[in-house]
Amino acid sequence: MIISCPSCLKKFKIEETLISSKGRNLQCGSCNYNWFYKIENKTVEPLKLEENIEEKIKDSDESVLFSSTTGKLKTKLDQELDKDVKNNDITHNSDLPKKSENITFSKFLSYIIVSIISFAVFVVLIDTIKTPLIDIFPGLEILLFNLFETLQDIKLFIIDLS
Question: Which of 74, 93, 94 has its CA nearest to residue 82?
Fold first, then answer.
């Protein structure tokens, strides 16, 4: 069975046996939103095709049919909209549940790991194009030398710890 989170609309596949007939509280694994979910028995009856549909189409004037139907639909929609505005049933963005902005330890750790990997890639890239950069910016040679010496010291420090 596939259910979706009402907050972030992410879809999840779960077994029907995990949800009783009375329903159950669920929590989204993506945004941590909690909601009550109940399985609804929706029995859909198959549509029946009328056999004399060709005669009905020939007898009715199509232009009158379409214009009267659209007019009725438009007036009904306007009435529903007016009723919603009077009852103040319109949902605003501020009424919607807000996503939690909690940064967990695992997220923080993943940010640190991504930052370290990005810095390592940056150092490799700078080392690769070091010679053309020094030709363009002569003062950069001292900075790059100091950066690589510092990285070498950090590497030796980590080796000494183990």
Answer: 74
What the block records as the tokens of 127 is 């080392």
Q: How far apart are CA 82 and CA 75, in angstroms?
A: 11
What distance in Å separates the CA atoms of residue 68 and residue 26, rounded to the nearest whole number?
A: 46
pLDDT, tens digit (0-9, with 9 covering 90-100), for 50-90: 666 666 665 555 544 555 566 677 777 777 767 665 665 55
Number of other residues whose CB lies within 10 A of the CB of residue 5: 20
Rounded Cα distance, 63 and 71, in Å: 12
Element (H, E) at 14: none
The reply to whether the predicted model has a pTM over 0.90 is no
- Which residue is it, tokens 């990285």? 151
SS3 27: strand
Q: Read off the tokens for 99.
A: 């996503």
pLDDT of 83 reads: 67
Q: Could you give the residue ranges of the DSSP H alpha helices within 38-104?
A: 53-59, 62-87
